[in-house]
Structures are given as structure tokens and as C-alpha cells.
């Protein structure tokens, strides 16, 4: 069985956001075992899995990425869409646009402390589109 659905995540401010629940609510029925592949259809946001228990982790991720790739670097050429756009593209490339997760007993099989992150790198982002493909 292969099932695919597209949906939009609620618009969120710049930063790292645990979106596991919102993603789960938008998925088709999951098989007993299989794989879930998620793809974010944007070049200035990313998706990943990481610590979801302590909200300080989200703040620290934002701080580290802003330090690694700050806005207003004088040598950037792609600046038409604002000072946050090219840094957003670089940050998104660093994290990536897909994740693949196991499905066990009809549920996404994340570790105890893990959650799915939306990594939003734009100052004024819109809702973000995802494609979910279920194999099972």
C-alpha cells in the first residue's frame, strides 16, 4: 500500500517549532508497519526530528543557526526578498527538506524525547506545504 496526501502547516513565526501533533492529524490512516516520508515544499524552511521535551532546545537551535548564518552578510547577492531570505535558503539546505520515519503498531515510531520540527527561517512566513507519503 502506498498513500499520499498534501497539507499545509499553520503559519508560524521564525524559529523552531514542534509540529508532530499537527502532522499526525493530517496523515491518512497508517498501516500496522511501514514508513512515513515527509517532504516540505519550500526552500526557506526545513523539517527535522529532535528533542521535543524541553522548549529551551528550540530557543538554542534558533540562536545557533542565527550565529552560523546571520542576516545582512555584505557579500550576499540574492537580497531581493529581504535580508532574511538568502540566510533562510542556506539554513534550509543545512537541515534538509525530508525525513523518513518508521511506522510501528499503526503510529509514527519516534523516540521518547523526539518530535518533528518545522524549522521556520523567514521573518514573515506563510503556511508551509508538506507532502506525506505512507508506505506499508
Automatic annotation (TrEMBL):
Pfam families: YjbQ (PF01894)
Gene3D superfamilies given in the database record: YjbQ-like
Organism of this sequence: Neolewinella aquimaris
Family according to the record: Belongs to the UPF0047 family.
Taxonomic path: Bacteria, Pseudomonadati, Bacteroidota, Saprospiria, Saprospirales
Name of the protein in its database record: Secondary thiamine-phosphate synthase enzyme
Domain of life: Bacteria
